[in-house]
Amino acid sequence: MTRQSICCLWVFLTVAIGMTPGLHARLDAADPEADAAQTRARFMNTAKAAEELTGVILQRKDAAGRRRALQEVLEKLGGDATAKVVALATLSSARDVPFDRSSFLGPVRLALRDADPAVRAGALMAIAGAGGTAKQLSEIAALAEDVDGFVRAQVPGALYGNGGAEHPDIVHPVIEKLLGDQWKDAKRAAVRSLWGCSWSPRAEEMLIELSRDPVLSYDTIYYALSTHEGKSRPVCDRLIEALEHRDPNVRWRAAWGLSYFTVAPDAREHVLAALIKALDDDLNATVRDYCVHGLGTIGSDAAVSKLRDLATNDESRRIREAAAQELRRVGAMRR
C-alpha cells in the first residue's frame, strides 16, 4: 500500500463530467460547523450498515459470496442516499481487494455530485477504491468549495489517494484553501494529508502559523512539519522552538523530524546547535536518542566531536551505545 493510499485510510479545474449549477457553491450557512458535524454523524451511523458487506468482500474463502456482495454494492450505488452511503463506505474499506472495478467508477463519480452531502463525502472516501486515478483530480479538487465542511474534509485524502502527489499544480492550491478553512476538521484533514508531501511557500507559512494554534499545534508538528523532506530554515526554526515544549511528545517529535529528514544548507549549523543543546538539557530518553541520530545524520566534525563525548562520558548507557553506533555510521559514510 502506498503512503498516499494510507493517508486517505489530499488553480481548481473544471469538473470533467459536469456539475449541477450552484450545487457545491460555498454558501453562508447559519451554522456551518453544526451542519458539518451533523453530516459526519449521519455518515458514520449509516456506514455502520456496511460492516457485513465489507466482511464478505474482505475474505478469501467464499469467492461466490464476494461476487454477490460486490454486485449488491453496485446496486446500492443506484439506490437512495442511505444505500449509496453504505455502498461507498464498503468500497472505501475494500480499496486493496482485487476485483474488477470497471463498473464502479462511473457511479462513484456521479456520487461526487449528489445532492446529499453524506453521499458526496462517501464518494470522496471511496473513489480510490473504485478505481479512481489522477484523471479524477479536478473533480475531487472542485469539492474543496463544497458548502459542507465534512465533505471538504475528505478532499485532501482523496487527492493524495488518487495520485495527487504527482500533480502539485492541482493539489497545492487546494491544500492552501483547506488550511484556511472555517471548519477545524477540514484544516486538520489538510494538515494530516501532508505527511512527507511537498507544499507551496504559502502553505508553509500557514502551517507554521497553525503549529501555534491551541487545537491544531500537535497535529501540524506531528503530521506535517516533522515529516517534510528538505526542511527550510523557518520550518527548522519552528521545530527547534518545539524542542523546548513542556510536552515530551512534542519534543521527541520535533527531535525526530530534525534528525531523520534533510534540512536546508542554511539550517544545518542551527539544527546541530539545537540538537546538542537538547542533549545537554533534556532528560527524556526518547528526545535524546533522536538527537543522537541527528548528530550522526549531520556528520560534521562538530557533530562527531559531540558523539565521541557522548559515547565516552554520558551517564546513560543507552545514549553511550547510540552515540557509538552513530560514530560507526558516520565512519562508514566517510569511507
Write the layout of secondary structure elements.
Layout: H1 3-7, H2 32-47, H3 51-57, H4 63-76, H5 81-93, H6 105-111, H7 117-126, H8 137-142, H9 149-153, H10 155-161, H11 168-179, H12 184-192, H13 201-210, H14 217-224, H15 233-242, H16 248-259, H17 268-281, H18 285-298, H19 301-313, H20 317-334
Helix pairs in contact: 2-7, 3-4, 4-5, 5-7, 11-12, 11-13, 15-16, 16-18, 17-18, 18-19, 18-20, 19-20
Overview of this structure, please?
The chain starts with a helix and ends with a helix. The chain folds into 2 domains: 1-197, Leucine-rich Repeat Variant, CATH 1.25.10; 199-335, Leucine-rich Repeat Variant (Alpha Horseshoe). Helix content is 63%, strand content 0%. It is built from 20 helices and no strands. The protein has helices spanning 3-7, 32-47, 51-57, 63-76, 81-93, 105-111, 117-126, 137-142, 149-153, 155-161, 168-179, 184-192, 201-210, 217-224, 233-242, 248-259, 268-281, 285-298, 301-313, 317-334. The chain is mainly α and 335 residues long.
SS elements, strand count: 0
Helical residue percent? 55-70%
Shape: elongated
Total DSSP helices: 20
Mean pLDDT: 91
The portion of residues forming beta strands comes to under 5%
Task: Give the C-level CATH assignment of the largest domain.
Answer: Mainly Alpha
Biggest sheet descriptor: none
By CATH, the topology of the largest domain is Leucine-rich Repeat Variant
Give, in order, the helices and strands: HHHHHHHHHHHHHHHHHHHH
Rounded Rg? 23 Å
**What CATH architecture of the largest domain do you see?**
Alpha Horseshoe
Distance between the termini: 36 Å
Task: Give me the secondary-structure category.
Answer: mainly alpha
Q: Can you tell me the residue ranges where pLDDT is under 50 for at least 5 consecutive residues?
A: 1-29
* Number of domain modules: 2
